[in-house]
Amino acid sequence: MGKDDSLTIRVNDDSDSIVIAMESQNQDKFADYELRLMDLDSEHLGIP
Which residues form the Proliferating cell nuclear antigen PCNA N-terminal domain (predicted)? Predict the structure, then answer.
């Protein structure tokens, strides 16, 4: 990405994914990535 390129991150309220879009300044290059979100369960682990 160059300093004048744009980066957009989109998410819908009811969606389990985000979309990352990158576009060059003169709009000749465009990349669109969809990433699924994960719900991680975490446990508090202590040192015995």
Answer: 2-44
Domain boundaries, the chain: 6-36
Largest CA distance in the chain: 59
Whether 21 contacts 5, CB under 8 Å: no
Q: Indicate whether this model's pTM tops 0.85.
A: no
Size of the chain, expressed as the number of residues it contains = 48
Amino acid at 25: Q
Q: What percent of the chain has pLDDT over 70?
A: 98
Q: Is 2 exposed, middle or buried (0-12, 13-18, 19+ CB in 10 A)?
A: exposed
